[in-house]
Design a protein that fits this description.
By secondary structure, this protein is mainly alpha-helical. It is 31% helix and 3% strand.
């Protein structure tokens, strides 16, 4: 970090230029050109504050103000109290896929059941060949237990839970074709 001690001639130049009404950006550029330094606008501003020169009295802007805009020939489209606002669908809302709320009755899908009575083993009690289908944990402080029946080869679940966890339509289709299995030598 650079030293915050300015040489007295730099501080005197800062005070002189600020009295002339120059901005701190112009002051920094002038001091840099005169003394071959690399002060920034912020450094000049901070030094000016420490010297008590102030920073809030800005000189008048050098650019003229923008002229007032002419009145538009089109009528104002602002909603008034007497008129209701027209609601137009916004294309961005459809992209976001906001949740749809409804208050009518709906038919719930038929739930599938595994048809197996779980052993309710804890995680510590599970063996390497036990089904890891979880039960519980829905309520607060409700323990999570696992099925615990012998699992199906190549799966973490027993056969009933394996069928339950898969989409029946997608499970009927083979994942790998016979050609692919021959190519990898798995037939």
């Amino acid at each position: 970090m650079e030293s915050t001690n300015w040489p007295p001639e730099h501080s005197a130049a800062l005070q002189e230029l600020r009295v002339r009404g120059m901005s701190y950006g112009m002051i920094a550029a002038t001091i840099n050109a005169r003394f071959n330094t690399a002060y920034t606008r912020s450094a000049a501003l901070s030094r000016g504050q420490r010297m008590g020169l102030g920073c809030f009295d800005r000189p008048e802007p050098s650019l003229p103000a923008l002229p007032d805009r002419p009145e538009s020939p089109l009528p104002a489209l602002r909603p008034s109290i007497d008129r209701t606002r027209e609601v137009r669908p916004d294309a961005r809302i459809e992209v976001l896929h906001w949740p749809k709320f409804f208050f009518g009755k709906t038919d719930l899908p038929e739930l599938r059941c595994a048809g197996v009575t779980p052993r309710h083993l804890s995680l510590v009690e599970l063996g390497p060949r036990d089904c890891r289908y979880p039960y519980g944990g829905d309520g607060e402080n409700e323990p999570i237990t696992f099925c615990g029946h012998r699992r199906q080869p190549g799966s973490s679940y027993c056969a009933p839970h394996f069928r339950l966890s898969r989409n029946p339509e997608l499970s009927a289709k083979p994942v790998l074709s016979a050609g692919w299995l021959q190519a990898v030598g798995a037939d």
